[in-house]
């Protein structure tokens, strides 16, 4: 097998395309031949040694991928050789093969394209867990999605619309706002050229959004929280902007608002039955056409450094997928 190997987490330039022994699956594991792997923001942080999970060196980055089961370990009965699966294991995706826990593999319907499958689990599981579980989103409520043209943002727009909510999508350019509108957003805000608070007042008649979905953090957090509706829920999803914001706690008091943490990975680990039910719902929604990953572009796996550069420049809308 071959893979992009990180021996020193000093950045993308330290990755090397390396030939490695093809491993054999142990009990409870499967060998997956990778056909597609998506690039997520944590994949950039992890090779810079900036992510909360720090795998032992050396490691193969690539958190999310889809492919074909080529071998199964002892005790694996729900997966068969030749079956298409998607998985999110944190590492291992940017190579030709990977060993994955069988329990972490999502069996795919035959008509599920592998490029879509590689861009499915992280964004839709995060967004569904955030909106439907943590925020308890109700039909008719208004959701503000920050960073709305990114992977989790585009997933959040689709899930909120499928749940019957009104969506205000906020992004950093007119092009990104147009993408959000094409996905069903009821209103858009370009926060690079428009005052976020004033735009939210206008878009909600002064009431503010019931739910704020925030994978960005940074300078957008405080104006968004100041704009939230009475009994609003502010979803802390991530910090793509870099800085972790410090919010005045009196804002939560004055609005009767909740600051709600979203950590899908830990939810998956602690509540596997609830997570499995959620993933089954998401597969149904995909097959019904209610959700579909937004694919920015596909690139060959050999172009991983260029793909990282595109992601680092904030140019990606939806998901960038590497194929082989």
UniProtKB/TrEMBL annotation:
Ranges of residues in domain Enoyl reductase (ER): 11-322
Ranges in a coiled coil: none
Recorded superkingdom: Bacteria
InterPro entries found in the cross-reference section: ADH-like_C, ADH-like_N, ER, GroES-like_sf, NAD(P)-bd_dom_sf, Quin_OxRdtase/zeta-crystal_CS, Zn-ADH-like_protein
Any one GO molecular-function label of the UniProt entry: oxidoreductase activity
Name of the featured protein: NADPH:quinone oxidoreductase family protein
Native species: Comamonas antarctica
């Amino acid at each position: 097998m071959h893979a992009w190997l990180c021996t020193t987490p000093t950045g993308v330039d330290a990755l090397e395309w390396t030939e490695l022994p093809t491993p054999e699956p142990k009990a409870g594991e499967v060998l997956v031949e990778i056909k597609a792997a998506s690039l997520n923001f944590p994949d950039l942080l992890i090779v810079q040694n900036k992510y909360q999970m720090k795998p032992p060196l050396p490691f193969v980055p690539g958190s999310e991928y889809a492919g074909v089961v080529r071998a199964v370990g002892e005790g694996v009965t729900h997966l068969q050789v030749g079956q298409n699966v998607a998985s999110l294991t944190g590492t291992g995706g940017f190579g030709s093969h990977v060993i994955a826990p069988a329990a972490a593999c999502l069996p795919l319907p035959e008509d599920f394209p592998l490029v879509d499958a590689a861009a499915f689990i992280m964004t839709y599981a995060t967004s569904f867990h955030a909106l439907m579980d943590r925020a308890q989103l109700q039909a008719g409520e208004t959701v503000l999605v920050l960073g709305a043209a990114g992977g989790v943002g585009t997933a959040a727009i689709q899930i909120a619309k499928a749940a019957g909510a009104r969506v205000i999508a906020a992004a950093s350019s007119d092009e990104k706002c147009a993408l959000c509108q094409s996905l069903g957003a009821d209103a858009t805000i370009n926060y690079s050229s428009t005052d976020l608070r004033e735009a939210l007042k206008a878009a909600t008649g002064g009431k503010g959004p019931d739910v704020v979905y925030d994978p960005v953090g940074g300078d957008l957090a405080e104006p968004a929280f100041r704009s939230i509706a009475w009994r609003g829920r502010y979803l802390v999803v991530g910090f793509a902007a870099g800085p972790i914001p410090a919010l005045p706690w009196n804002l939560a008091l004055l609005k009767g608002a909740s600051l709600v943490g979203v950590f899908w990975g830990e939810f998956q680990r602690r509540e596997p039955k609830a997570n499995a039910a959620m993933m089954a719902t998401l597969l149904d929604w995909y097959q019904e056409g209610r959700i579909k990953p937004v694919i920015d572009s596909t690139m060959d796996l050999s172009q991983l450094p260029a793909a990282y550069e595109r992601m680092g420049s904030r140019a990606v809308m939806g998901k960038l997928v590497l194929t082989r």
